[in-house]
């Protein structure tokens, strides 16, 4: 293994998680005993970035786990769009510790809460007894026209029967609620061609592909500000401690996707927050909030340089 892989794979999360993060809010979510459902997942080389499971790789595991939890609860006969229809409304990822590429990974999940027309999945990734990542997915029941609708009583009872007492979900911050819907409010914009391989069985750009577009935007913004996306260099490594993504509308192939990025909120000594939005044919189809901590090659928080701080200030949201 190269020196770069060793350094990247040893990165640790920031020593002091930001207030409101699940690591502080509910330690029970870090325990294997808090989850009734587990599945082993093979780690492929395409899931790996510099020796650890990448953010998009983990997003794929979470998407598979969410559907497996639903199938386990509803049964094969009730799973799918034939009987009940639903869409993913939001997904949140929280990094706990690096997921090593050469260790087995198990994904865990359960139902965290059930609302009038929505339900949440409490998700986690484990390597042995060590929790490496936490996730939360919000599903919404929809009618034939894909509008939010009350959850049918039969489905609601099935979901309520599986709510796990320890699986408190991530705090719903709705941090993206006040983000602008205007593409011109974001100082950094990248455009990507959508691919047919991005689509799902019903023709939408799928949930993992949406996560990939957000991730591409983060990395493109980092490269534009620092000239690199590695652990080396004066800018340090940008560690995404938490990424909260909201799906606001459907995206389709082959229209291009515009990924917009801007700085929002406080710029701290070693951390800052990026706001993102996806636009397709003038419509805002998704937004996200990413909490970034800057780390050095040993995984310790690194103070932002004056030059980087100035560049971040120049890339704040407009208005």
TrEMBL record:
Source organism: Paraburkholderia dinghuensis
Entry's SUPFAM superfamilies?
Thioesterase/thiol ester dehydrase-isomerase
- What is the designated name of this protein? Acyl-CoA thioesterase
